[in-house]
UniProtKB/TrEMBL annotation:
Record-linked SUPFAM superfamilies: 1-deoxy-D-xylulose-5-phosphate reductoisomerase, C-terminal domain, Glyceraldehyde-3-phosphate dehydrogenase-like, C-terminal domain, NAD(P)-binding Rossmann-fold domains
Domain 1-deoxy-D-xylulose 5-phosphate reductoisomerase C-terminal per the UniProt entry, residue ranges: 146-234
Enzyme class at the top of the EC tree: oxidoreductase
Organism name: Rugamonas brunnea
Record gene name: dxr
Pfam families, per database record: DXP_redisom_C (PF08436), DXP_reductoisom (PF02670), DXPR_C (PF13288)
Name of protein: 1-deoxy-D-xylulose 5-phosphate reductoisomerase
Amino acid sequence: MQRITILGATGSIGVSTLDVLARHPERYSVYALSAHSRVEELAAQCERFRPARAVVGSAAAAEQLGALLRAKGLRTEVEYGEQALCAIASAAEVDAVMAAIVGAAGLAPTLAAARAGKKVLLANKEALVMSGQLFMDAVQDSGAVLLPIDSEHNAIFQCLPHGYGRAPEAAGVAKVLLTASGGPFLTRAVETLDAVTPEQACKHPNWVMGRKISVDSATMMNKGLEVIEAHWLFGAPADQIEVVIHPQSVIHSMVSYVDGSVLAQLGNPDMRTPIAHALAWPERIASGVEQLDLTRMGGLQFERPDFERFPCLALAFDALRAGGTAPALLNAANEVAVQAFLDQRIGFRQIDRVIAHVMDAVPHGAASSIAAVMAQDAAARVAAQTYIAGHAK
Ligand code: NDP
Ligand code: MG
């Protein structure tokens, strides 16, 4: 029996994870769940999965959750705040941690799980983008097992017979091919993009996801963050990572080898497949996802990304090449800009301008410690907010 903590249980990935766990009660039990403010959803999850501990974002939310749980006669211990998140991620009772908090808020608890040598199922790509080498060093030092949930990276992992631990050259890898759907605005006239609404941006053609990653998919910053994520997970330099637009989202990514072989992982676009893969690895378990019916597919298309339509993708490659804390700056500026877009304070095309401004205005340095990374994150947020205040609609 494996005991699982889910950080971000009420989110899109959290809910899909609980769906997979519920199919295998003989294999998994839930040790702890966390949410930020959706207390009623978390209370319902506690009632169904009976965790020992539950963590929320504030004292008020904890009080509300405690009252709801007592009314249901549950004895789940309720806590709040970052330290409590780190505690449920690193507790001795935990075998595996699903890191599914969105954004930089997930860094500390995800890192705590890695430092404690847990099996870390990584959905929270922002944590790895921010802290890159520091995070990978923590995994190495503690002997943690890091498994990617992001569908592309999970696909690449499945296409690397040697898994991690070998330099890409030694494994004969020529290129890592990250597929991208291109999001909802792949073919929309570029000059009309500034008029799009948050609802239009969040309406992804193939995937149902949280709002932040949905906007990231529309700008293709999501793919940019994934390029940086692939760099750290698989040790591939920027030049070895190629983005391929594939609107059907059936091939989740590929690895091409020096002998001309290309390995791909295919499946219906449903996050329960990579979640089940990572949970059970190296075994396989049912996920509830329907088998792919290739005969019902019209055809698979591929094209090169247009970096002018998607400037965020270019900014991410620049940040990866710049190294140090540049990816942390990129990530923080993006988080602030996306929130401003969702709040309708800036237009869609201003997202990349905010990020470009922050990358220019805030000097980046060496990512020598988590404190240095967090200081850059804070500086980038201030610069982004100031820029937005001066350029708001
Ligand atoms: P959601 O917005 O659906 O869920 C986010 C979760 O994090 C919720 O449980 C939320 O709690 C919690 N949360 C939000 N803010 C904070 C905070 N400041 N502190 C602590 N917890 C917080 O996001 P997704 O599930 O879509 O994405 C989660 C992560 O997985 C992201 O990093 C994303 O990039 C990645 N990912 C997601 C995919 C998807 O298909 N959705 C695919 C690949 C990667 P509450 O509900 O209370 O607000
Ligand atoms: Mg992805």
